[in-house]
Amino acid sequence: GLGSPALLYLAAAGVGTLGIAEFDTVDESNLQRQVIHGVSDIDKAKGLSAKESIAEINPHVNVILHEERLDNDNVLGVFEGYDLIVDGTDNFATRYMVNDAAYFLKIPYVWGSIYRFDGQASVFAPMLGEDLPCYRCLYPEPPPPGMVPSCAEGGVLGVLCASIGSIHSGCAARIRLA
User: Residues near 151 by Cβ (< 8 Å), separated by ≥ 6?
Assistant: First the structure.
């Protein structure tokens, strides 16, 4: 949900290369919040669907697909070489792993989260100065499994994805231009 508008706006802004780490397929239930996909994309790999949508917006953007689930064994290799990480993950385990990889690789990390009618976004770039926090600095421990309902269980307002995802792309563009 967050990655869709972020990708669309970054492509429209002319970001030269976008990497997409996504292993899932498009489901009809995704369409209300993952606006990069359409009905004709149902059952298609989400990364491929996103790449095709990006090409329609700006054919000059180079899209690199990482069609695998991020895990502790591959995350550093997937992220290495990128200037920035924009996190659209939907679970705490992956969010902490992404933060840690960004921290160790010294790559600025744009984070966002949504739940029902609330959203948050932030930029973490501790490599730019002393005493600048990372995500884990603010939230040292993830909540216990099952404590926070998933979007499927708790629901999410689709337009909230667009709002926070747009903030993602604005932060990303600003960092990239700085």
Answer: 1, 90, 114, 115
CA distance 10 to 170: 8
Distance from CA of residue 150 to its chain's centroid?
16
Q: Rounded to an integer, what distance in angstroms lies between the CA atom of residue 82 and that of residue 63?
A: 12
Tokens standing for residue 70: 């991020």
- Compute CA distances 147 → 28, 96, 140, 143, 163, whole Å: 27, 16, 16, 6, 25
**Is residue 177's pLDDT more than 60?**
no
Tokens standing for residue 123: 């930029």
Instruction: Show the CA angle centred on residue 174, arms to residues 61 and 134, nearest 5°.
Output: 110
Phi-psi category of 144—alpha, beta or left, where left has phi over 0 and alpha has psi -120 to 50? beta
Question: Given CA atoms 62, 14, 69, 37 in this order, what sign does their dihedral have?
Answer: negative
Question: pLDDT for 62-73, tens place per residue?
Answer: 999 999 999 999
Instruction: Please write the tens of the pLDDT for every residue from 147-166.
Output: 777 666 777 888 888 898 88
Separation of alpha carbons 20 and 86, rounded Å:
10
Distance CA 107, CA 39 (A): 35
Across the chain, what does the average pLDDT equal? 90
